[in-house]
């Protein structure tokens, strides 16, 4: 459907644009294109504030957030942390540490699982050495990305504070404060992650939130925490309604924010489940779909 038809009868007084990073702002090779940057600058020039909402930990997101020049608080860890980069003002919505410990312990019986515990400035890792594993994975020929894409990956995911804790019990013992979230990766049979997610649901019910940006991962957050909740916090501070918000994303952890916004946009590379919830579907990230959408919006 054409964007103009989607916008018919809608409030076009948009005041905030919120963007996912992976699969949305950047290409599969982790590049931020000139066309995308220029389109975002035009949005800002039109008086619309811009920010990012990502499942990434803050240190992994801040480079891209600054590269596009966000001028509203950055939402990271799927809504568990919100920070104004200009002032440093930070709000966190952490996962209760006792829930975190129980969820980590429940993953122990699955031998193919890897657990990461996110905090504001670091993360704990249970499993094979984090940085060694990633460097081996991404530097062993043939390269998964171009040389530049590999360097971007190393910048955002390897050159960040990570503490290897070894086994599950050591990781649990190290959790002395409420973390932002857990990321549990399943590298065994796919049904094991489905089973683990069901066990979490049975154990905690509505006392936690669960989401995912990867087919082999489940993210565990405190009850009510999501990208959408983070956007609502920012919108309230700005004195704007959800109808004045535009969101763009591609993965399952973007569904709530796509539904929250006055104009929710799915990337062409999104799953059908995400596209069905969107008001508009643009081209893929490889086709600079974000820039295409913004150019049409401002035409």
The counted number of beta strands is 14
What is the overall number of helices? Answer: 13
Question: CATH class of the largest domain, anyone?
Answer: Alpha Beta
User: Overall pLDDT, averaged?
Assistant: 92
- How would you write the strand order of the largest sheet? 8-7-6-9-11-10
Largest sheet: 6 strands, mixed
Number of domains: 2
Name of the CATH architecture of the largest domain:
3-Layer(aba) Sandwich
Structural class: alpha/beta
CATH topology of the largest domain: Rossmann fold
**What is the overall silhouette?**
globular
Give the helices and strands as they follow along the chain.
HEHHEHEEEHEEHHEHEHEEHEHEHEH
Tell me the β content.
Answer: 15-25%
Uncertain ranges: none
End-to-end C-alpha gap: 17 Å
Portion in helices? 25-40%
Fourth-tier CATH superfamily name of the largest domain: HAD superfamily/HAD-like
- How big is the Rg? 19 Å
List keywords for this structure.
alpha/beta, 5-stranded parallel β-sheet, single chain, 6-stranded mixed β-sheet, Hypothetical Protein, Haloacid Dehalogenase-like Hydrolase, Chain: A, domain 2, 14 strands
Question: Can you give a write-up of this model?
Answer:
- With about 300 residues, this protein is of the alpha/beta class.
- It folds into 2 domains: about 5-90 and about 225-299, HAD superfamily/HAD-like (Rossmann fold); about 95-220, Hypothetical Protein, Haloacid Dehalogenase-like Hydrolase, Chain: A, domain 2 (2-Layer Sandwich), CATH 3.30.1240.10.
- Helix content is about 40%, strand content about 20%.
- The strands form 3 sheets. Strands 8-7-6-9-11-10 form a 6-stranded mixed β-sheet. Strands 2-1-12-13-14 form a 5-stranded parallel β-sheet.
- It is globular and about 55 Å long.
- About 45% of the residues are buried.
